[in-house]
Amino acid sequence: MYNGTLPPNNSYQPWAEKDLSNSSNCINDGFKYPLYSTVFSIVFVVGLLTNVVAIYIFTCTLKLRNETTTYMMNLVVSDLLFVFTLPLRVFYFINGNWPFGSTLCKVSVSLFYTNMYGSILFLTCISVDRFLAIVYPFRSRALRTKRNAKIVCVAVWVLVLSGSLPTGFLLETTSPNNNKTNAAIFCFENFSSKQWKAHLSKVVIFIETVGFVIPLLLNVCCSIMVLHTLRRPRTVGRGGKLNKKKILRMIIVHLFIFCFCFIPYNVNLVFYALVRTKTLEGCFVESVVRTIYPIALCIAVSNCCFDPIVYYFTSETIQNSIKRKSQGNRSIDVKFSEALQSETTSNLQCSLRHLKAKVFHNESSV
């Protein structure tokens, strides 16, 4: 949940109420503004490039699409929606002013939570789908269809948007000096303690349970069950060693990205909510929580860059498509070189015949 002190060049604190004014002196998180602007800039460039490449592969290169690629496609859309808002955030954290209007501020906040928990749920769908395919390959055939995958994706979008939109639209842009025409407008900063106690603490409980704890348990349990299944000697059959290595690598990459990106932020968010609702008090506790929060948030945002790695390691279809494309390019190069060589040879032979005819013509003339 965005909150905290304002950029260092501004002294106004729209979130600061009487119950926070005493503790604001022990908060020193001004480092987060250059951190946000730097990390968000990198994530924008890398996330935009990798996800555009991914969406190109999904829409233009892949001929075979299944339920796994359906989940991945929705994950790409979730990432791109958030990535497109990052330049606005970078502008704000550099200049300390939001000139883009109240609605766009609320939409930007909403898309952050849409991406965060949409990514968690879509990655969980991929994990569950792989679990069914490996552990119950025959019994899950009727369940693992593109139609059912689309229904699940719609349900995920409804669930995520029902939590993120109300949260984002609780936020109001704030100007410290409404009488001044050139007064700075602030965004991402002004959830008050009253809002935390009345609404946001309940939202945190909901999103932490439905959007993080349950998906985390599902990812871990599915991975354990898949690993247990792979230990059986007759599980994979022909080419089993290679398949087991691929699946093991897929699980490791999937779990690492999931845990690295989402655990720090969501664990810290619980303590952050306790601090903001004054359940946890004390200068040291608040200082530690507010110091960790920007770092955890930047790590969470980086999931936009890591998701394409999951696409590659999870989907053999994508790997085969990339390999076929590279092999196709090599075969085109070979054919071109052969054609060029053949054309060169024929031209050389034609030149020799022409030269020979000319010599014989000269001899006959003499």
From TrEMBL:
<feature type="domain" description="G-protein coupled receptors family 1 profile">
    <location>
        <begin position="50"/>
        <end position="311"/>
    </location>
</feature>
<keyword id="KW-0807">Transducer</keyword>
<comment type="similarity">
    <text>Belongs to the G-protein coupled receptor 1 family.</text>
</comment>
<feature type="transmembrane region" description="Helical">
    <location>
        <begin position="116"/>
        <end position="139"/>
    </location>
</feature>
<feature type="transmembrane region" description="Helical">
    <location>
        <begin position="151"/>
        <end position="171"/>
    </location>
</feature>
<dbReference type="InterPro" id="IPR017452">
    <property type="entry name" value="GPCR_Rhodpsn_7TM"/>
</dbReference>
<dbReference type="GO" id="GO:0005886">
    <property type="term" value="C:plasma membrane"/>
</dbReference>
<dbReference type="GO" id="GO:0007200">
    <property type="term" value="P:phospholipase C-activating G protein-coupled receptor signaling pathway"/>
</dbReference>
<keyword id="KW-1133">Transmembrane helix</keyword>
<dbReference type="GO" id="GO:0007188">
    <property type="term" value="P:adenylate cyclase-modulating G protein-coupled receptor signaling pathway"/>
</dbReference>
<feature type="transmembrane region" description="Helical">
    <location>
        <begin position="39"/>
        <end position="59"/>
    </location>
</feature>
<dbReference type="GO" id="GO:0001525">
    <property type="term" value="P:angiogenesis"/>
</dbReference>
<dbReference type="GO" id="GO:0035025">
    <property type="term" value="P:positive regulation of Rho protein signal transduction"/>
</dbReference>
<keyword id="KW-0325">Glycoprotein</keyword>
<feature type="transmembrane region" description="Helical">
    <location>
        <begin position="71"/>
        <end position="94"/>
    </location>
</feature>
<protein>
    <submittedName>
        <fullName>Lysophosphatidic acid receptor 6a</fullName>
    </submittedName>
</protein>
<dbReference type="InterPro" id="IPR000276">
    <property type="entry name" value="GPCR_Rhodpsn"/>
</dbReference>
<keyword id="KW-1064">Adaptive immunity</keyword>
<keyword id="KW-1015">Disulfide bond</keyword>
<keyword id="KW-0675">Receptor</keyword>
<feature type="transmembrane region" description="Helical">
    <location>
        <begin position="203"/>
        <end position="227"/>
    </location>
</feature>
<keyword id="KW-0391">Immunity</keyword>
<keyword id="KW-0812">Transmembrane</keyword>
<feature type="transmembrane region" description="Helical">
    <location>
        <begin position="292"/>
        <end position="314"/>
    </location>
</feature>
<dbReference type="GO" id="GO:0070915">
    <property type="term" value="F:lysophosphatidic acid receptor activity"/>
</dbReference>
<dbReference type="GO" id="GO:0002250">
    <property type="term" value="P:adaptive immune response"/>
</dbReference>
<keyword id="KW-0297">G-protein coupled receptor</keyword>
<keyword id="KW-0472">Membrane</keyword>
<dbReference type="Pfam" id="PF00001">
    <property type="entry name" value="7tm_1"/>
</dbReference>
<feature type="transmembrane region" description="Helical">
    <location>
        <begin position="247"/>
        <end position="272"/>
    </location>
</feature>
